[in-house]
Amino acid sequence: MEEERFNLPFWVHLYCFMVAHIGFIPLYFGYSHYHFHYLGIDDESKILFVALISSLSLLFYGVGVFTCRLLQVDRKRFAFLTELKKFPQKNNFDFTFGIALFLFSALIFSIYLFSLETIPIVEAVMGHSDQFSISRSDATNNYAGILPYHYFEMFFHDILFFSCFFWIALYFSEKSRRSLVLLPLILVTVVFASFVTGEKAPFVWFSIGMVVTLKILLSTNRWLNLSRGLSVILGVGGFFIVVGLVSLTMKTDRYTPFDYLRSIGQRITIGAPAVAYFQVELAQMDKGYLEGRTLPNPRGFFPFEPVLLPIETKSFMNSRYSEAKVVGSAPGPYWAELFANFGALGVCVISFIVGFLICCLSRFLGLLGVNCLAIAVIAWSSTHFIKIAETGIGSFVFDQKTAFVILLAFGYFVLRFVLQKTGVTSDE
Fold this sequence. Notes:
428 residues, mainly alpha, 19 helices, 68% helix, 0% strand
């Protein structure tokens, strides 16, 4: 049995429970004034019904994971994945690769920033609350740049995060100061990119990836000097705390710090169940089940007009967005989108498939050797696939981000393997 350095299916399951299920308790008892009085989530029978759909999803996801665990894998067939050198003290190939990946991602991020008329996070810090909503809309859902927003977002979130995880692993592995030179710049860039659109979720996902990266490094490298490791952990942790405190001070003229903390807690635990409530309600209205129309339709290949469920849900939840000509978005958990498309049967069947595939991925990642790219792939996977709890299934059907990371990893492994076999690399 392969050794999984990070139990991805378990943590996705737990994240789905914490983010997209447990929040039905405060919703049912009306503990959230905003959701009960302002959004009108007050139908107890409907809340119980949506909670039942969520429970079915959790159950069949677990069955899919269990089924995958029953399969036996011959580890010898994947021995080539572990043939790469494990943490050479000075790895020029990884150092060059890390610099190139970060600079390329930062370049795409810069192009995106220069294409914006206003930067949402700047508007928020300046206290321009009215302009902030419009700026955030124009920078995300209503973005009209040279490329669609999701292409830019892939680079300044996913690939930039990936480069940071890679660089952290490189810093731990090299035992040299050269990898430390760019580390502060990379961290500052990544954190700014996390908040640039005014969203808080990307920073949470990045923090999870950092925790996974450090966990793997500290568990697989016994030679790691404890004081050196603690200094990095405390430094990174302190940096996150400072940024978090800065974000908490936004709009202090309207909210107290306690109100802000309570809002964050409600957003984490109640946000996804509340969106699921409205998505299920939309499916039970006159339109009926959407029968897959919320799924991607690349270049109009399939004979249907795509339905942008997150945008329609936001307009349905809060009509002031459409009245103000602000394109809002309210993505919900994957099982809510499945119910809106295929009903309860679709939730059961596809949740089983999701659990099975995520477990297969986790077991495959356990076959990778211990190197900087393998750690970055595992950490990035932890940040990417937990999003299924609150971003829907549609973005994972034609998953361009995963495809790009696979191509990136494949190119890395092939090039480094060839260079090692030919003796071109100068890993000391």
